[in-house]
Write a structure and sequence with these properties.
mainly alpha
């Protein structure tokens, strides 16, 4: 697999480059720092959609891009969830974050294994995965905003969306695991 740099791949790399800036902004000692985090995360969420769209539209899909895209997504989401849990260590947020992070590790491992045995298409991204991702992104952005502005009503809305995202996360994981079962049964 060679690294082919094109616009979609550059957008994916941008998501990874934004992570340290998000972390740095999170710890800035002034009001509004979490708004900057929310904006950085929003930019990352937009590039997540845009890189895939452009890769298909411009016929610039690459193996490297297909590998890097989910890695960038998971890095951004996991790092941000850890920061959110640190800021709001309530059991609801911590459990939802643990479910989301655990699912991401499980499904990434499952996809890697399925690719190794030539069955990657069984665990391709589904509409449920897209809904999960969208809900998760909106939840995280809402929670980040709520740390600096409109804590009420944004924080409970963000927590509810994160809980919904955790449920969608479990549901999608079960669907992916069910799709992989036939490959597990093969000798």
């Amino acid at each position: 697999m060679t690294m082919e740099l094109n616009l979609p791949t550059a957008l994916t790399l941008l998501r990874i480059v934004l992570i340290p800036f998000l972390v740095l902004a999170f710890y800035l000692p002034w009001k509004g720092a979490h708004i900057i985090c929310a904006v950085i995360f929003l930019i990352a969420a937009i590039t997540d959609w845009l890189d895939g769209y452009l890769a298909r539209k411009m016929s610039q899909t690459t193996q490297f891009g297909a590998f890097l895209d989910p890695v960038a997504d998971k890095l951004m989401v996991v790092v941000t969830l850890v920061l959110v849990v640190q800021a709001d260590p309530s059991p609801y947020v911590a459990i939802a974050a643990a479910v989301i992070i655990g699912r991401e590790i499980t499904i990434a491992s499952l996809r890697e294994w399925m690719a190794e045995i030539g069955q990657r298409n069984r665990v391709a991204v589904s509409w449920l995965g897209k809904w999960k991702t969208t809900t998760q992104m909106v939840a995280i952005i809402t929670l980040l905003f709520s740390m600096d502005v409109w804590e009420q009503p944004l924080k409970p809305i963000g927590q509810a969306l994160l809980a919904i995202s955790a449920v969608l996360t479990l549901w999608s994981m079960i669907c992916y695991l069910k799709a992989a079962i036939p490959a597990l049964r093969e000798p």
